[in-house]
Amino acid sequence: MTATGSMEIAVAVRPFGRLLAAQILPSCPRFRAPAAVGAFLVHGRRFSKRTVGSASSRIRAAVAPAKDEAGISDSRRLSTATGPLQPGGDRAFERIFVQGLAAVKPLVIELVEPERELLAEVMVEKEEEILERVVVKDAKERKETADEKEAWRLLKDAVVSYCGSAVGTVAANDPAAEALNYDQVFIRDFVPSALAFLLKGETEIVRNFLLHTLQLQSWEKTVDCYSPGQGLMPASFKVRSVPIDGRKDEVKEVLDPDFGESAIGRVAPVDSGLWWIILLRAYGKITGDYTLQERVDVQIGIQLILNLCLSDGFDMFPTLLVADGSCMIDRRMGIHGHPLEIQALFYCALRCSREMIVINDGSRSLLSAVNKRLTALSFHIREYYWVDMKKINEIYRYKTEEYSQDATNKFNIYPEQIPSWLVDWIPEKGGYLIGNLQPAHMDFRFFSLGNLWAIISSLTTPRQAEDILNLMENKWEDFVGTMPLKICYPALENEEWRIITGSDPKNTPWSYHNGGSWPTLLWQFTLACIKMGRPELARKAVDVAEKRLSDDQWPEYYDTPTARFIGKQSRLYQTWTIAGFLASKLLLQNPEMASIFTFEEDMELLEGCACSLMNHPRAKCSRRALKPQVLI
Ligand code: GLC
C-alpha cells in the first residue's frame, strides 16, 4: 500500500507549483459538453456525429495556451522534453503533435442556456436507453440478494464528490484503520466501481472520473528535482479544500494527485494510464456516447499516454520495461523488468487506442506504431511467456550459451531455474503465461491479473486462453480455495522471500501481494470466463466469495494458501472488493456486457507478425506462414 509519511527520500514537490497547477484548472469545472470532431474514421469504420453531436456543434470551446505568472507557457513548465524537435520523420511528427498540443489548456466548455438544456435532455435520453438495456432486464428477472443490497449501499457511501459531482470512489472506508491514502480515489481501484455503475446505468460518475483524471495528467509533478513524463496518470487523487486567496474563511475544492511522489517506495503508477484508456473504451461501448473519446483533449490524453509507452529506449523486446511495483502489486516483489501484468494491460490499452484514435494526418504515424507494437507484442508473449508440460520439458533439455541468430534458447535460460514446485504442479493439460522474462531469467510464478487480461484482450491464442482456464479449474484449491482469487502462485518463502522482497513484513508468504487472495480479482476472472464461454466457472467462484464477503466485512485480501484468514493488515470495507463482487454478479446476469472490455483475435495483426518473421523479401505474407502456437 502506498502512503504518505516518513521517508528517507526527500521529495521536492514545490507547493507553489501545485497551487499554480490548481489554478490552471478551474476549481469547479464543468464537463457537460463534448467537443466532438464530427464525422470520423476509427479503425476503418465510419462514424457520424450522434445525437449529442448535434448539440455539441453549437458549443463554444475555449482553448488557449496556459501561462503561469512568469509568462512561461505550460509546454515548457510541464514538459520534460529537452531535445530539439526534428523536422520530418514519423516519430518526430508524433512528438511534435503531442508536445505541441500538450500546451493547450484543458478544455473549458462554455454552454449557453438553451444548449445546456438540450444537452441535458440528450444525456437523460441516453441514460434511459442504457437503463432499458441493462438494469431493467436485471430488475425484471431477479431481485437483489441481501448481500448485493448491502454492497450497493457501501459502494454509494464510498463515492467521492468534487464541486457537487461524483468523481470516483475511495479505496476503503474502514472506520477502524488509519486512512493513510486509502481515503483517495485510486485509478486502478475505480475500474470495478465504474463497471458496476455502468452496468447499473449510472454513467455520469464514470464520465466525470475520466475527464478529471485527464486533467491531472498534465499536472506538474516533481520527485527530487526530476519530472516524470507528461503522459503519466496519477496512482490516486484526493479532493482537498484550500483557502481562497485573499478571502477570509472561504475555501474551494481542488484535486490533489499522487504520481508516486508520496508513495511508499516512490513506485511509478505505470498501469494508471493503461486502465484509463481501457475504461474510456468501455464507457463509449456501453453508453454509445462516443463524443467523449472524440474530444480533442481526450484524444491528446490518449496520445500522451501512448507516447510515453512507445518512446524509444534501449529495449530489445517489445514488452514494456518498468520498475518493480508499477502496478496492482505496488511494492517490491521482484516484478521489475517485463512483468506480465503490465504487458497484458499494455496490449489491451493499445487495442483500445487503435479503435478510439481519430484517424487524421496527425495520428496516422502513431496508429502505425500502435499496430506494429501490437503485432510484435502478441508474438513475443505467445511464443516466449507460454509454458505447459511440453515447453517445460523443452526448457529442461535446453542447451545454453548459444551464440547465433537462430538459437533455440534465445534468452539463455539455465534449466536449473525450473523451480521444483513446478515440476510436480504443472498438469498434463493446461498451461499459463509466466510472470516475467529477461535475459537468463524466467519468473515461473503464475500472476492472475496478467493471465486474465491476456485472455480478455486476446493477447493469447484461443487455445492458450482455454488452457489457462483449464489450469485454474484444475488447481481450484490453489487459486480459489475458500476465497477467490490468488494474486500469484506460489508465494516466495524463506531465502527467496528475504532476497526478493527485501524481508518485507507485509509481504510474508501467502499474505498480501505474496500469494494472498484478492476478492477484487473476481470481476476479471468473470470477464475471462464469460469471454471463453465458461460462465459456470465464474459462478462457482462468485458463490464461494458470497459465502464470506459480507460476514467478513468485505476485506481487501485474505492470507494462507487456501485463503482461510482475513489478511493480517487487510482493510475492511475495501471498495474494489465490494465493486468487484457487484460487477461480477451483474456481468453474469448480462454476459453480453463483457464485450465492453473484451477483444476477439485480430487476424490482421497476426499476419503482420508472419510477415516480419519471414526474412525472405519475396516470401508471401500469409496466415499459413505462422507457427501454429502463435495462431491457435
Ligand atoms: C494496495 C494495493 C494497490 C491498491 C491500493 C489501494 O496498495 O496494492 O494495488 O491500488 O492498495 O487499494
TrEMBL record:
Its EC number is 3.2.1.26. GO terms for cellular component: mitochondrion. GO terms for molecular function: endo-alpha-N-acetylgalactosaminidase activity; sucrose alpha-glucosidase activity. The keyword Acetylation does not apply. InterPro entries: Glyco_hydro_100. The keyword Cytoplasm does not apply. It catalyses: Hydrolysis of terminal non-reducing beta-D-fructofuranoside residues in beta-D-fructofuranosides. It is an enzyme of class 3 (hydrolase). Pfam families: Glyco_hydro_100. Keywords: Carbohydrate metabolism, Glycosidase, Hydrolase. GO terms for biological process: sucrose catabolic process. It comes from the Eukaryota. Invertase that cleaves sucrose into glucose and fructose. Belongs to the glycosyl hydrolase 100 family. This is Alkaline/neutral invertase. It comes from Zingiber officinale.
